[in-house]
Design goal:
The chain is mainly α. Helix content is about 80%, strand content about 0%. It contains 13 helices and two strands.
């Protein structure tokens, strides 16, 4: 754990250094730009609460990817599952009206069902026709994008709107805020706790981890790998769908074109940097949200294009993943030499 932390921190610091050099070469003040970035994201309680709110889709889609990748399935369908989950929640909020204590759980459940159903399509194609989910989930992303665009342009289009969007969902389906604190953050943290507990404290989670590390050994040891594969795909799809539902319920409160943005792809990047560790996924989701939230402030005060943060995130992923193997070897060798030196002196 300590080695992974050192590797990741070294990668992040290196990425900041590289991006800072690029900014200086472009004529932008790197130190002032970074200061503005963090001041606008963690410099006040309001800014930090905004970071937490913006981290919701990153953490949930990151958890989806981390659980999938570390358990065997290569589920890259988070963007599509996010959209279908958001659409399901929106439809529920348009045609059903219940008191808020019932409406909010109802819409969240619809979002999870939508995401799970979309991932189920890839899972069933794998089990019936041996189609690789790496390909099918990517293809389903495009289908989800086109399908949701059609849905908000025709059957659920808001009459009189000049942009593809649905009407607003009922107010009882809006995630409430406590001052500047949005309750969607609580849902995200509860989802994280449930997933963490299942993954690390239950027999099912042990089987998932064993299958991810050595599927042949797990199968020969009596683990029901086919059943677990289906369950994992449903769970990870539900997490991505929940992210889509929460974005609708905490943000525009309707489904609009482009609502998916790059949330799910950023979530996949978060899981890659975290090396599929669930707790690290939570932390990196918040960290990436810090960068995104502060990028607008950086552009406002230092004129650095906000796209520079996209470059920074890409460099972080590249440096951390490229250096993970080599740096871990160096650290392990150094720690071994230190232990041998200590024993010799003792």
């Amino acid at each position: 754990m300590r080695k992974s932390l050192i590797v990741n921190l070294s990668g992040i610091l290196s990425a900041f250094l590289i991006c800072g050099v690029v900014m200086q070469l472009q004529g932008y003040p790197a130190i002032e730009s970074y200061a503005a970035l963090f001041n606008q994201s963690v410099g006040s309680s309001y800014a930090f609460l905004t970071v937490l709110k913006n981290s919701i889709p990153l953490v949930l889609t990151g958890l989806s990817a981390s659980v999938a990748f570390s358990s065997g399935p290569v589920n890259l369908g988070q963007p599509g599952q996010f959209l279908i989950g958001g659409l399901f929640a929106t439809i529920g909020g348009l045609f059903v009206e219940l008191p808020a204590p019932l409406m909010i759980p109802f819409m969240l459940m619809l979002a999870m069902i939508g995401g799970a159903l979309w991932s189920f399509l890839a899972a069933i194609m794998k089990q019936l026709f041996d189609m690789d989910e790496y390909i099918t989930t990517l293809m389903l992303n495009m289908i989800a994008d086109l399908f949701t665009y059609w849905a908000i342009s025709y059957p659920f289009f808001e009459t009189g709107a000049t942009f593809p969007q649905t009407p607003k969902i009922v107010k009882s389906g809006w995630m409430p805020s406590i001052g500047k604190f949005n309750s969607g953050i609580i849902v995200m943290l509860l989802a994280f706790i449930v997933v963490w507990f299942i993954y690390y404290r239950t027999t099912a989670g042990y089987e998932w981890r064993m299958t991810g590390q050595n599927p042949t050994f797990a199968r020969l040891g009596g683990v029901p790998t086919r059943r677990n594969y289906l369950i994992i795909m449903l769970v990870t799809g539900a997490l991505a769908g929940l992210a889509g539902g929460l974005v609708v319920m905490t943000g525009p409160r309707r489904f609009i074109k482009g609502i998916g943005a790059n949330y799910a792809w950023d979530g996949i990047m978060v899981s890659m940097v975290a090396n599929n560790n669930l707790f690290a996924t939570l932390l990196y989701g918040i960290f990436f949200s810090t960068l995104e939230t502060g990028s607008l402030g950086m552009e406002l005060f230092t004129k650095v294009p906000s796209e520079m943060v996209t470059v920074l995130k890409a460099i972080i992923v590249l440096v951390v993943m490229a250096g993970r193997g080599s740096l871990e070897v160096l650290i392990r060798n150094w720690m071994t030499r230190q232990k041998m030196k200590a024993r010799a002196e003792g």
